[in-house]
Amino acid sequence: EELSTADVSESSLTGETSMTLPGEATEAGTAGTLDTNLDLSNLNSAQRDEVMNVVEDSIETALQNEGVLSQNDVVTVTDINDEGEVEYTVDLNVDSDIDSTLEKISSAFVAELGSTLSNPDTLESISNEIQEESAVSSDPNVVEELSNADVSDSSLGETSITTIGENTEITINGVLDTNIDTSSLTETEKEEAKEVVENSIQNTLENKGFIPENDESITVTVTDIDEQGQVEYEVDLTISPKTGTLRPAETTTLEAISDALVSQIDSTLSNPSILEELGNAIKTESADSSVAEELSSIDIVDFVQGETSVTATGTATGAGPCNLCNAGEIGLEKEILFNGAQTSCPEVYRFLATQSEAGSDSCIAGKKALRTECCMRKCDLCSGGGIPDWYSMVNVNGNSMTCLELDAIVADSEIQNGSDQCSQLLEIAAPACCYEPPSKPCNMCQNDSEYNDVMTSVLVEYGGTTATCGQIFNTLFSREEHDSETCALIKQDLSSQCCYNKCSLCGALQTNAALSVMHDETQLGCSEFDSYIFASNLVEEGSNECQAFQDEHRENCCYDISCSLCAKGNELYTTKETSVVQYSGSEVACAEVANFLYQQEMSQG
Fold it and tell me: Per DSSP, which regions of 6-82 are E strands?
């Protein structure tokens, strides 16, 4: 009875953010609350636990079905208090393999750098820095050539990960398009121009917050400026295995990983159709349980993203075992000669891992002799940029699989990065497996300022494939910007088939969520019509069916808010009752005006 009109009104993620270097395993997660009208004060301990389990399983299943969580990730509802506040956590295992984790850090670092340098404001700032830096040069030719420097575009090239002793270095290659002409400069003058541009890039990235000031773990090096004005440069990030507090540079890269996680959860749980499916899943999950009645009318109406934490669950101590291959490389299955004896690469891996420490003389000698023969940098599906969506589907040679399954096939097939086979594969896989989260997602059912609802389960044919409207809605929401050509095209083609103006029982009035009414000999909460009955039966506003529901139940379920003189938005102020004001041509006290407005038949809106 207490939960028959359950309503979830708000969600927030409130966990503190902490950043540490990966140890044996790294976990990323969020902790937060759902604000609901649930009242469990009259339930016993066993019933409370069952309600928590139902809500917990439903959230986890919904996020797994949307590809946000894997089977190894965990949602935990830790408490539902007497005020209806649901406390929960979402914990994800980033990776138990440090090499793979370094690849993720590298991808996040590249994504953040690319985002910073693609901003026109950043390019303008670099241009200004070059002009200011060159002004103090003692060489008039350098001053003249750089005085009108203009940086027009930026692109990132290949990324390499190299482990030397205890340190790992991530190197990103990039190009800036400029109007700088070095053809008339001497070699000495050209070197000075390169130094000016180098300092300008470094200073700008520091000013933009990408590089912490005076942090030596991230450096910029300009390697060349050709006669067409293309500036070739490298950005190097050094990660050392020190425990304790990270330098800000490493924190930044781990924050980028957590930002990708937040974006995925946010784009999924901000989707109205997902919240609707989650509410339905909770009802279905609880149908045969002892708390079925309590959860029969639960409604989830809002989600607000909060903060994320990234922490190490293992401990990195000592130099660790010797790894024949560098970070980002995979071991090959092949027979070789080692110390004059016939053996295999896997045998050498095991020998070095069990008999040598990383950075030792024997480890360095083994790597020098055999790494090139036994190790290979495998084809990286997202080497061209973007965040991998491992659970997205991709079709390769007529076979449909997840991007994670494809990545495993790439490793087993020993497809090398930079090879023709890798290039051909990336043309097919990268668009499906890699994405940049949109800053303002595409809502297929939004028309100007009006938001319609999506018909989640309706099947449509588009682009030669069949999918549900819900799947198309979710893909657009997580991948496409609201003003993109793809968003506009699919809205034009599919919104009439997938979107509808769902019936609203109360319209502009307020719904009395605490009240239940009888409908077809069944007792229903007033909020259940909008959240379940109309959604599951696709009842459209203005239809005869919608009008019948409104005629039957609007009078009992809906109410208006009387006009309050001292209310504005969600804020309620105290009335200065004795203050005198001019109103309708007379001097009256504020208390009289407030009372007059309250008694009139006018709403707060």
Answer: 8-13, 26-36, 74-80
Q: Are 101 and 22 in contact (CB under 8 A)?
A: yes
DSSP state of 212: -
Measured distance CA(372)–CA(444) in Å, rounded:
50
pLDDT tens for each residue of 448-475: 777 889 998 899 988 888 889 988 888 8
* Residue 261 and residue 92 in contact, taking contact as beta carbons nearer than 8 Å: yes
Are the beta carbons of 157 and 110 closer than 8 angstroms?
A: no
Neighbours of 512 (CB within 10 A): 17
Secondary structure percentages of the chain, helix, strand, coil, to 5: 40, 25, 35
Q: Which residues, at least 6 apart from 236, have a Cβ–Cβ distance to it below 8 Å?
A: 169, 170, 171, 172, 218, 219, 220, 221
For residue 532, give the DSSP letter.
I
Percent of the chain with pLDDT over 70: 69
Rounded to 10 deg, the angle between the 120-134 and 187-207 helix axes is 130
Smallest CA-to-CA distance from 235 within 250, 248, 247, 223 is with 223
Mean pLDDT of the chain: 75
Is 557:505 a contact under the CB 8 Å cutoff?
Answer: yes
Hunting for tokens 């019509």 — which residue is that? 529
